[in-house]
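Please decode residue identities from the backbone states below.
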């Protein structure tokens, strides 16, 4: 199984529009971060987690020609705003299966009402097949199983996902003990780390490291990164040896 980091930035991306912050002005490609998303693929199966505003650019960069489904973590725009751009996949494959909490499906159906329209739908509009994700209920992704992990982003419920020995958790601030059990034996963990300073709804760097030490994966990758965290190269040097800052277009094998 391969995991391709399509985007590793927080909601505004890096560089932030109009920012003179040194990280926003950095010429290191690892300091350029699109909105957070990953592409998980193996054999002839291909799934993405989240579909933010940079989706089109991300799909062009990674060369992904087929998507068997989109797994959503939550409804915030940095994770969902790219939905209109699934059309090339619709034209080739038909309606796109989307997996999300019922609340997220309802939210998307209001914001993208023309996609969910059943009567007099505009020809060529995107089409989706929504599948409700329930906590404590696994679902099939190709010939593998996805395990939803229930976490909280402040007071908002968010799903992380485990597939085999890989888990992806973004926009986490708190996680209940029983959900931690679902991460037992994970070899590769991706988790959000916004910046050094505490934040109300996101892990900061220390909280992410503490969480990784609790889960004890072989390797962990940090994502959903703000420019305020610092230069990729400098932050990486300070991390424990099994923890890496993810960066856009990084592909790892599990
Ligand atoms: Zn986010």
């Amino acid at each position: 199984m391969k995991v391709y980091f399509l985007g590793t930035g927080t909601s505004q991306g890096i560089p932030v529009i109009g920012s003179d912050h040194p990280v926003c002005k950095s010429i290191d490609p690892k300091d350029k971060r699109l909105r957070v998303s990953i592409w998980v693929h193996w054999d002839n199966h291909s799934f993405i987690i989240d579909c933010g505003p940079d989706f089109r650019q991300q799909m062009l960069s990674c060369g992904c020609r087929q998507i068997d489904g989109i797994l959503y973590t939550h409804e915030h725009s940095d994770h969902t705003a790219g939905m209109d751009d699934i059309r090339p996949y619709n034209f080739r494959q038909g309606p796109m299966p989307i997996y999300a909490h019922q609340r997220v499906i309802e939210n998307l159906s209001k914001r993208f009402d023309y996609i969910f329209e059943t009567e007099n739908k505009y020809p060529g509009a995107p089409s989706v097949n929504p599948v409700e994700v329930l906590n404590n209920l696994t679902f099939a992704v190709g010939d593998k199983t996805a395990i939803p992990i229930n976490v909280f982003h402040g007071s908002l419920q968010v799903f992380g996902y485990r597939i085999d020995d890989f888990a992806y958790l973004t926009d986490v601030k708190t996680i209940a003990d029983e959900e931690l059990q679902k991460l037992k034996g994970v070899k590769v963990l991706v988790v959000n780390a916004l910046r050094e300073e505490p934040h109300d709804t996101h892990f900061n760097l220390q909280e992410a490291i503490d969480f990784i030490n609790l889960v004890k994966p072989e390797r962990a990758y940090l994502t959903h990164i703000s420019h305020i965290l610092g230069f990729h190269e400098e932050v990486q040097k300070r991390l424990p040896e099994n923890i890496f800052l993810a960066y856009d277009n990084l592909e790892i094998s599990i």
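Observation: The pocket of zinc ion is lined by residues 11, 36, 76, 78-79, 171, 224 (CB under 6 Å).
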